[in-house]
Amino acid sequence: MEDYLDWIYMGVMSAFVGGAMKKVLASHVSAAPTVVAWLGVTLLVERLWFFCVPAVLVLAALCLACCLYSVRTAPAPTLPVQGKAVFITGCDTGFGKAAARRLDAQGFEVFATVLDLCGEGAKELQKTCSPHLTLLQVDITQPQQVQQALLDTKAKLGLRGLWGLVNNAGVCVNFGDAELSLMSNYRGCMEVNFFGTLNVTKTFLPLLRQAKGRIVTISSPAGEQPFPCLAAYGASKAALNLFINTLRHEMEPWGVKVSTILPSSYKTGQSGNQEYWENQYKSLIHNLSTGLLEEYGEDYTHETKELFQHFAQSANEDLSPVINTISEALLSPRPLVRYYAGPGVGLMNFVYSYFPLSLSDKFLQRLFVQKKIIPRALRKENNNNNNINNNVEKIKK
Ligand SMILES: *[C@@H]1O[C@H](CO)[C@@H](O)[C@H](O)[C@H]1NC(C)=O
Ligand SMILES: *[C@@H]1O[C@H](CO)[C@@H](O)[C@H](O)[C@H]1NC(C)=O
Question: Alphabetically, which GO biological process terms does the record hold (predicted)?
């Protein structure tokens, strides 16, 4: 009888560990497979001892596990950089600027697009990079500018193809509850993050196919998981993810490899700028309908702003995990489909994949912006009902 139960126990555990392992491997989380593998091996060894399986067998199983593990994690040689050209969007600040510098230093021929050719970022790149770096002024929401960038790039490349496209340019126009986010916010995010990136990608695909090159897109975990207050930004990144993912398998026969990078929170762009947050907040309050502002309360929206500002200030400053990943995706002989780059983002994905929604929602709120103030209309149910009744009364009169 006991034997019977043990077999069931082992079957269930194996199914669980196997399933977890398969899912984790499919999402390309780097640390988790190790943990899951060890958990599985430990459990198996424990069970096998219990059944008094000869020690030789246990040792053999352990050796096999170790071999499999080392085969998987052996560092792959990288491709030569020599003669490879990459095109990076959004290099005024943040990941784009840092990636342009790094890839230039590695010996790539870099085409870096900036919004402002006379801006700080462009000047810094000009000063610190080799003469092989070409700066191009491109607003990716302007198809003529994208087209011009293609012509300029082709003029330099001659008959050569383009090895890499790094889709980095992106915006988060505003933040706030989905209901409080303006339509212009949703459209603004879609315009840059989705339609802009789409147009750039389509424009450069012929050159990328010619070189059997790489497309590396910086997306966001907010495009996979429902982060509070990031509906507009998240939805645009979700649309982008699906487009890129479809392109990935359609590009396989052409030899173009497509990767997406999901970074954790970093200090990039405007996020460290106090004035930026104030202006965002002012324009939100200014543009919200009075009815909504009444129901949510100004203190509620103010708290959201404070939380975001605080969160942005505590974001990571060292961009290197993301920059290393961009370089890896461009040079690895077998780049991954998805990279989680930076502290905590793999764990976040793990929780989202395996835990019930109620728990993963809480986890996201804890990790991100944890609101204390509830919308005004929900504060005192009774008061509120009275107000509504009063209003109805007034209307009747
Ligand atoms: C980019 O967008 C413009 C405007 O919608 C369009 O005319 C152009 O064909 C697009 N580029 C590509 C390669 O599809
Ligand atoms: C919101 O209000 C500001 C004024 O504070 C205005 O300049 C801006 O155009 C408005 N934005 C939208 C999206 O309506």
Answer: androgen biosynthetic process; cortisol metabolic process
Extents of the domains making up the chain? 2-70, 85-367
- Does the reported pTM lie above 0.85? no
Question: With helix as H, strand as E and coil as C, how does the chain read?
Answer: CHHHHHHHHHHHHHHHHHHHHHHHHHCCCCCHHHHHHHHHHHHHHHHHHHCCCCHHHHHHHHHHHHHHHHHHHCCCCCCCCCCCEEEECCCCCHHHHHHHHHHHHHCCEEEEEECCCCCHHHHHHHHHCCCCCEEEECCCCCHHHHHHHHHHHHHHHCCCCCCEEEECCCCCCCCCCCCCCCHHHHHHHHHHHHHHHHHHHHHHHHHHHHHCCEEEEECCHHHCCCCCCCHHHHHHHHHHHHHHHHHHHHHHHHCCEEEEEEECCECCCCCCCHHHHHHHHHHHHHHCCHHHHHHHCHHHHHHHHHHHHHHHHCCECCCHHHHHHHHHHHHCCCCCCEEEECCCHHHHHHHHHHCCHHHHHHHHHHHCCCCCCCCHHHHCHHHHHHHHHHHHHHHHC
Higher-scoring residue by pLDDT: 395, 159: 159
CATH numeric code, 85-367:
3.40.50.720
Tens digits of per-residue pLDDT, 254-305? 999 999 999 988 887 676 677 888 888 888 889 999 999 999 999 999 998 8
Q: By alpha-carbon position, which residue is closest to atom 2 of ligand 2?
A: 283
* Binding site membership of 187 for ligand 2 (Cβ less than 6 Å): no
The residue whose CA is least distant from atom 3 of ligand 1 is: 143
Q: How far is the CA of 199 from the centre of ligand 1 (A)?
A: 6
Query: Ligand 2: which of 276, 278, 287 to mutate, judged by most atoms within 8 Å of the beta carbon?
Result: 287
16 pLDDT band (50/70/90 cuts)?
low
Higher pLDDT, residue 17 or 291: 291
Ligand 2: distance of its center to the CA of 285 in Å? 9
Active site residues: 233
Atom of ligand 1 nearest to the CA of 203: 13
